[in-house]
Sequence to fold (527 residues):
Amino acid sequence: MNAKPPNCIDIAEGESPFPVLTQEVRPGATTGSADGDLGRLAEQTISDVLGWRARGQDVEGFVAALTGSFQLKRVEGHNEAVWTPRGHAVQADLGQVTGGQASLAARARTAVRDALPLLDSLVPLRVDPDVQDAEAFRSLVRHELEELLRELESPIIRPERVDNLLSLLTGLPSVAGSPGCGNGSEYAYTDAKSLPAGSHLAALREQFGLTGDNVNTIEEERIQTSFLTLQDWVLSLHASWKQQRPQIIGQGTTGGFLGTTLVLLSQELAAVSGQVESVWSAFDSVYLNAGERQTIPLKDTSLTLEGLLRWIHEFATHEAKKVIQSGGKDAVEMAVSPVLDQLSRLLLCHILSAYPSGNGRIVVCMDPEGHKPPGFYSARVQMAVLELYQYLRQARDTARTVHRHITVRIANAKPNVLQLGREEQLLLTGSGFLPGLHKVAILEPGGDILEGTPQSCDDSSGQLRVEFDLCKHNREYPLTPGPYELAVYESRPGDSWPPVQVDDWIHVFVEKAAEKQPAKKAANKDA
Fold:
């Protein structure tokens, strides 16, 4: 079992003094009132139906969510609204479908509109068709084409879903290493027999017998031509998606498309705003109300606990939106992303006290000077703060995809729990790493700690491998168990240490090495 530092406890140990939560507590909510209960029920129902969290007088957000949740269709002379269920909150008031995704959606809209009549016009050319199987594959291909169009038109695109639909239709992978039936020569098709056998288009061809061997008349050749046209449209969409995919998901050299990225950023900012309210509720449940939180100072800053939480909430709810609408792409890169980075750092350094340990459990590191009350370290509070930190980090990473030049991004570090007394090798995955230029260090706010030794750097695969000697080091302040920043920075001749400008960072946890258990004596066979 891994040893814990003296000021750390298992997260469950700090929960017992406080009452068990039996209902959700919200700041300012009316407790025990029928009107308050009905209001919360109505708000939750609207949120579930629209996939949207209400934000004061946010009329634009409400209209965007309403438009995205219902589709109007003309049926027998009147309009009918069809509800489209959404499994997550969508804030579509900041951005819209633009760039490569909008181009693909326009092409898909035209292709599907023209392809569906061709699909319906197909008749079997085989002398022994299985009508039920043929109709089943016709329905399957129609469904996948409609779903592909729906996904490309969605403001929250799911690239894996598009990959899957195109792979089912064509049998070809959309990205390197993805499942598919192709052999790499994706677009070397000149006739209907070239489709991989595992694709649904190939199965449709076989069930209907749409091959040259079954063509005998002009009418039969017209039917085969309809299938070839349908196939060419799908393969063309596949080729365009493969080309545009990196920039749509924000991995292009100039970042992602602004409109599509802002839709995702809007959703994540809404999640941050909602999670701050959950953190407030958790504090209220352990007898730390807003007034008491306002009196708890954060070390080495002029902020209070409540001041930082309100800053996060106000920025995610109002300020970020106003800045983006007035400044556009430059505002995201130079105003929103740095603030989200600073807020996540402050939250990590001053409020978040729960960290993963090497044995798979979560420990809470308590302030040795005792400036915070016991409720601060309770499991419900720290888990809510941990979730808030993850939402902030995710929003910051999304904002960093909007840029005019190549930037360094750390997606994850493995392992993220390091042990003292060992030589640890870390693998950083991300983008923008340059061999010989970027270095990695373990930093503590306000001081330098330990510089790593680069082992390898592969910019094409986005991997940077580094080694840290945690057995001994000659720094003025030795490593102690607790949270640290793993920072990537540029190393140039004459630069000072610690680095002034950090390109990106991710938090890691340092713990004591596992104690060796004494070997048990062998059992006496004669006993």
Notes: Residues 301 and 380 are 25 Å apart (CA to CA). The radius of gyration is 29 Å. Confidence is low (pLDDT under 50) at residues 1-6, 27-35, 87-92, 176-193. The chain has three domains: 1-31+259-405, 99-248, 407-516.
